[in-house]
Structures are given as C-alpha cells and as structure tokens.
Amino acid sequence: MRIDLEEDLHALAGEPTRPFDLDGALRRARRRRLAVAGGTVGGTLVAAAVALPLLAHGTATVPVIDDPGREVAEQPDAPDAVPPPLVGDGDFLVRVEPVSANVLADMWEQVHEAALDEVIAGRPMPRWADLAVDLSAVDATFHDLAHDWHRRGAAAGDRPIVHDDPRFLLEELSRRALAETPVPPPTFDVERLQGPPGDRASAWYMDEAVADVDDAAVERHLGGTVDDLCDWLAGYQADVEEAFRGLQARSGRYTTLHGLPPQMPGSLLSRLGHPPFGDGLDGWLYDRCLPRLGEWTPWPDPAERDLDLPPEPDAGVDARPRLSATAFEMALSAVTDTRPDALAEPSEGDHLHVFAYDDGRVSRIPNGVAAAVDLGPDEYGLPFEVFERLEGPSQQWPPGSAAVLNGAGDRVRQVVVAVDGIVINLSADDAGVQPLLEDWAREAAWELHRRGQERTP
Amino acid sequence: MATRHDEELAAFCAREWPRLVGALRLAYGDQELAEDLAQEALEGACRRWRRVGAMDHPEAWVRRVAFNAAASSFRRSDAGRRAMRRHGPDAIETRAPDPELLAVRDALASLDERPRTAIVLRYYLGMTPAEAGDAMGCSGQAVRNLTHRAIRRLREVLGPDGWELATMEEVASDAY
Question: In this model, does residue A304 exceed pLDDT 50?
Fold first, then answer.
C-alpha cells in the first residue's frame, strides 16, 4: 500500500456539489447596513426586527419581543420572550435563531459591560454612531452576535457598543460600587443575622410574614437593635456611595447628576450571606432605614441631565435638553429646516401613516408603513395621543423609510426611531419628557416623510 | 459591466471555492456543511473585498474565517457536534471507492478534530505550520506537534510501510 497524504487527501476531498454563488454573495454584500443600538433588549431588537423588513420594502412577518428585559426577570424562560426565526428577503436578511430570554440578557450584560469599561477608564463613551452592525449576514444566536460585535468592533479598532443612557450608567456604577466595597463589620450578631439553617426558608424572606414585622421581631431575628442595623446600613451605604463617586469621577461623566440610589437593605445584607428578604420585609427595612440614608433625589430634572454630556457638533441649533443627541442629530439634522410643526395639521398631500399596537406586538408590517409603534403594556406605554397626533391619512409609505416607536419599562419610556437605516433608541424617565418625545417623534416622522418624497419619482 | 475589482473577486472566489470546500469537507466530513461554511467565508470576502483583496494572502484570511465559522457553527449546534463525535466523521464519502483510499479515509476519520484539521491544512491546502497555526488559532509549533501525533496515529492504523518519503521526512522534523 502506497500512502501519499497530499495525493490521497486531494482524491478524498472531491469536488463541490454546487458552484460558489457569486451573484448572491455580491447581492448580499451590497445590501445596506443598519446601525442598531438600544437601551434594552426589547428596544433594540424590536427596532431592528421591525425596521429591517420595513427597509426591505416591508412585507415580512415580523416577530416583536415584548419587553424581554422584564420577562427575563419575571419569566426566565417565557416562550413569548423567544423570538421566532425571522427572515426578510428584501435588501436585508436577518435570521434570528430562537434563543432564551436569558441568553438575550446575557448578551446585553456583555454589551453594557463593554460600554461601561470605556467610561470608567475615562475614555469617551461609545456613541450610537460608533456602532455599525451589519445585520445582513447575521446567522447566529444573539449571543453569538454579541461576541461578533465585540470581535468585529475590536478588529476594526472601533468601540463596538453604544449606550449613553445615564440611568444605565448610574445603575451600573452603583452595582459596581456595591461589589467593590468591602463589607464593614456589622454591629450585630452575624450568626443570628444569617439565622439557623431552618430559618433560611422561614417567613423572614416570605412576603406573607411581612404583616407581622415590627421592630421587636426584627431585633429577635437579627440579634441586634433596629438602630444598630440602620446605623450599619447607613455606614455601609456611605462607603458604597464613596466608591460610586470614585467610579463616577473616573468616568468623568455625569458628575452633576444626582447620584447613587440607596441600596436596598437586602442587597447590603446579602453581602453578609443573608438569604434574600421578601420585597415586603426589604421595603419595611428600607423605610425604616431611609432616614439614616440621607435625602436622595431619584432622578434629576431632565433639564439638568445632559449638563456633562460632551458638546454636540451642532450644539446651539436646538437648545432643548436631550439624552443622546449624537445619532439623533445625525439622523434628523435635516429636519430643522423642514416643517417639524406641520404634522399637527397635515395638509393635503402630506401623508403619514402610523400603525399603533397596544398589545406589545406587531404581527405584520404592511408594505409601505411609515412607522410602527410598539407600546408595550398599556400601563407603561406612551400616551396614545402622541401617536394619534402622528397619525394622518392612510397611504403607503415609500419604501426605504421606517420609524419605530417602542415603549417599555415601568419607569423608563422609550422612543425608538428608525430613520432610513439608523435605529435610535432614546430613553427617558417620566418627568417632563413627554413633550420631547412628542417633538422627536414628530420630527422623525417628518424626516421620514421628506426622505420618502425625495425618493418617490 | 464588470469592473477589474469584480473580476479579481470572481477569480479569487472561483479559485478558492473548491479548495475551501475540500478542506472543510476533509476536516468535518460533511459536504453540505463544508459548502455552507465556504460560502459564508467567501461572502465575507465579498463584503470586505477592498480590504481583503489588498492583503498579501487573502486566501489565508478566507480560510481562517471559514474555520472560525465552523467553530461558531458547532458552538451553535452542539447537539449536532456531539452526534458527530459519537458517530465519527464517517460521512466523508468518496466517489471513487478505491480500497486503499477508503482505508486512508477511515484512518483520517479516526483522528480527533484538531489533528485532522492540521493534517488537512498542511497536506491538502499546503500550508506551512505557521500558516496552519494562524488558521487554527494556535502556534506553528502546536501544529507541528498535532501533525506529528496525527501521522503517528495514521501509521498505527495504516501500517508503517508505503509512506511517501517526503511526508515522513517532513514529519520527522516536527519535533516536540
């Protein structure tokens, strides 16, 4: 027997059964690219899922995730949180493999960590516009996609991820501060705090028992007085806050924002190995300890919030406060000289069509839709009148334009605006932001309309 | 009208396609998978041809992408991979069932994935150990070691005689 590896391998390799699809490869390579960024899984993926087929002349069936971030917490493996495969067969091709909501959450954890590392290191915050993800060839789980973003971003020398939502930063800085702060020795009996083995499953962390909570009961359980506990919590909180300020100072950003939310006592006690309290008991302790934790303003006035944001290239054009001006400005800079105020009274010939879905899902995007609205749960959704004002005479929207508005979260309201391939997810809190959302949505819609008219022969 | 840029790309794809498919098929024993992975890798080159085409060795880039894509593919379909391990890459089929060739095929299939890949990259694609290491994400010396062990294993299975001299001399130099 004669063995020549090279010769034998070539004989074994055989020939391809089909030719390389060069035409298809070139066609797909020339597809337009879509920049996607978002503050939540839902915001981003809804935007991407809806915008892609819209941009691809919008006839695809579009699965939309209803606030999976919430579902991750409440229903870790909820079937509804799993996006079914999605294939758009126009200019864009996206295939989303079914993945669990936890995988989505894991992806965003990595994404956010990457952004936060940049900030804490004192480097500029990655911006929306820095993220240009080619979704046209995505054939992976979102988990893989996240890795791919990192890899591609690193390879290209780009910062791959974008997030300049101050809320996220504060929460993340707070979480890190808590993790990095040594636990001070408690002034009460830790052994008793941790409780006997049987007690770990006791009513102390079951909400049903909360009604019976009083100082005496807590003291019996913790082996110290409530005052001792509150003092310890306040001291620990101060340490955490100091660490938080340090992280914040290193980030060089958002220094004027009101800072660290007081940690829930349960979070602090858990560092000592205490089993989790129920919400009720934790809340009781929180209320009891809050006077020791100092006054805290949960969230700054919107007008204050961007004081420390870097200057925008076109700052001064519009002095309104905003959260993330970069991409928004990039997408909508042309709007200021059009007719942002005309939407309230559409004139003949001006057509805008908004589809609103108040059940958190969009099952089908009709061809030529101007905008899709995913309000999420009613109680969290944006006021419907915002969209009613956007809605005008029904008419097919020119292909290539899309606007997606997405509302989700119990305290965070979001507007996701997709403008011709640029998907923007803006987050805002409850206070005073509605007029801005309204303005932005109106402007976005008009920008879409304007671009659509330009394309129409 | 095709530009020179398009013509270069088309020629590159035509040249690399069969070699890439063959290498992946030998490495993973699945014709469909090999063709899908090769298509994916070459599509990547199409998207980035300005950059990839300007490289000294664009084929090396494509091969690395293809083998990376294989790893991603297996990660995504771990169940499939486990099945492949259970059953071995016997799916390699030859159109000319020469008995000696079939013996080589079976011996190749008996190798673990990485030594088999090292063998394919070096003796099918003609890569140097350093180039193969780049494609596999390891050092050239690691490839030498993998190759050395793989050949030793193949000789155990196929017998010590009849080996083409150049191969044996090359492998002999792949010291640990």
Answer: no
Which of the 8 DSSP states describes residue A44?
H
Residues of chain A with pLDDT > 70, as a percent, come to: 14
Interface of B with A in 4-63 (CB under 8 A): 6, 9-10, 13-14, 17-18, 21-23, 25-26, 31, 34-35, 38-40, 42-44, 46-47, 49
Residue A177 has pLDDT above 80, yes or no: no
How far apart CA B32 and CA B38 sit, in angstroms, is: 10
pLDDT digits (tens, 9 = 90+) for B47-69: 778 878 888 888 888 888 888 77
Contact A25 B39 (CB under 8 A): yes
pLDDT of residue B36: 81
Please list the residues that pair with A180 across neighbouring strands. Answer: none
Element at A355 (helix H, strand E): strand A354-357
Q: Report CB contact under 8 Å: A15, B14.
A: no
User: In this prediction, does ipTM exceed 0.85?
Assistant: no
Nearest CB among A10, A12, A16 relative to B17 is that of A16
Average pLDDT over every residue of B106-135: 88
What pLDDT is attached to residue A245?
A: 74
* Residue A2 with chain B: CB contacts under 8 Å: 100, 162, 164
Average pLDDT, chain A: 45
Structural domains in chain B plus CATH codes = 4-172 (1.20.140.160)
Residue B53 neighbours by CB under 8 Å, 6+ apart = B5, B8, B9, B12, B45
Q: What is the pTM of this model?
A: 0.39
**Yes or no, beta carbons of A8 and B101 under 8 Å apart:** yes
Q: Which residues of B touch A16 (CB under 8 A)?
A: 17-18, 21-22, 34-35, 38
